[in-house]
Amino acid sequence: MEVLLAGAGVLALLAAVLPNLLHERALSMPLILLVGGLIFGLLPFPHPYGGGVLDPSSQVDVVEVITELGVLVSLVGAGLKSDRLLGWRSWSSTWRLLLITLPLSICAVAFLGWWALALSPAAALLLGAALAPTDPVLAGDVQVPAPNTEDGRGADNEIRFTLTTEAGLNDGLAMPFVLVALAMVGTATTSAVPWLLTEVAVPLVIAVLVGLACGRLLSWLMFRVRNERLRLGEYSDGLVVLAIAFLPYALCQWLGGIGFVAVFTAAATIRASERSHDYHGVLHEFGDQLERLFVALALLGLGVAMGDGLLNGLRLVEILVAVAVVLVVRPLFGGLALIRGSGSRPAAKAIAFFGIRGIGSLYYLAYALNHGDFPMADSLWRTTAFTIAVSVLVHGLLSGPVMRRLEKRGVAGS
After folding, report:
1. Residue 396: exposure state from Cβ atoms within 10 A (0-12, 13-18, ≥19)
2. Do 54 and 41 contact (CB within 8 A), yes or no?
3. Where are the beta strands (DSSP E) in 176-292?
4. Cα–Cα dist 152/155, whole Å
5. Does residue 120 fall inside a structural domain?
6. What pLDDT is stored for residue 192 in this prediction?
7. How many structural domains compose the chain?
8. Residue 3 falls within a domain, yes or no?
């Protein structure tokens, strides 16, 4: 117990210190955490602290819960930072990425998994669904930093706004593909009604309706209820972030909808209901602290697992697939979707390139492996973990300098 408490204290300190220490430096907090965990995992600790004790393949249920909570909190933050009025033109880059880049990326990664890694069709589809969505947790350096940001990094910044809203929505939209993969291994039932209706259209409608209802209810409690003692916006209490994360998600999941979409919709609805209130800053600050804690927990844990045996048996072809996912698949289909879009050409290139993979990928893989029996699960873990490592390395080194250069040149705006 003493070791666990000491570890928790170190995590909290790292989450508090690293963002300020690394501000406007080439090294990112996720990269430092991942490398630190990797070094720690390589150390020869005696039992029970070594020997693969943190291997996620043997702790699937724990990984699922931790990553699920991390994604939920980050979705609230993404929704609260979505300052533009909802519309086809104002969100056109986001819709293009969701409707074109996401499905094409899933298909491309699934093909690589089947052709190059010799995965079964179900396992290949799972790999595509896990690695195609971008991550709202690790993408802080390229997203809108806070509500009401007016220094060129807010809603008028096409790169940051698009990457923020895309990450807030595509995590949920990958779930139907995960469910199809589960159905293919015989652990989920399929209906005679077409898949697009039962697994995409209806759950998506439920998610939007639940998100709108919960968002309006919570915004009323925050800003419009007559009793000042009940008006949450009068208090500097950030715990409401957890209510925004958990209530829409639980209700939506119970009704058969896509819970992640409901959470983002609820947060965006709250943001749209009252844009100028100072309480948004309170919610953002508390949510940002929770995000940093989950980032530290997930990436240190992943780094330790990688150093302690998760990558044992890593094949060259798995390395090549991971590199292709980060440097070829996302930039190619992201750029394709943004041809003749609303942003400038440099902005489109940056949006296409910064498709950061992270905790969301771990969640989907853990969820599927916890609910189904997929062959070659070790290969799925190795490929997913190495893809996240490549993304953290490449994007962690380039995101800060590239964004500062583009914003200095004034080509990041819409």
Report:
1. buried
2. yes
3. none
4. 8
5. yes
6. 46
7. 1
8. no
Task: Determine whether 265 is exposed, middle or buried from the number of CB atoms within 10 Å of its CB (0-12, 13-18, 19+).
Answer: buried
Q: What is the residue-averaged pLDDT of the chain?
A: 85
Higher-confidence residue of 55 and 391: namely 391
Separation in Å, CA 169 to CA 20, 21, 101, 210, 405: 29, 31, 13, 15, 27
* Position 365 in a domain: yes
The pLDDT tens digits of the residues spanning 189-230 come to 555 457 677 778 899 999 999 999 999 999 999 988 887 777
CA dihedral for 112, 117, 121, 125, sign (positive or negative) = negative
Reading the block at residue 405, the tokens are 């250069």
pTM score above 0.85: yes
C-alpha distance across the termini of the chain, in Å: 52
d(CA 246, CA 210): 12
Question: What are the Cα distances from residue 108, in Å, to 99, 127, 326, 356?
Answer: 15, 10, 12, 17
CB under 8 Å to 43, separation ≥6 — which residues? 50, 307
78: nearest Cα among 161, 19, 172: 161
CATH number at residue 348: 1.20.1530.20
Q: Does residue 69 belong to any structural domain of this protein?
A: yes
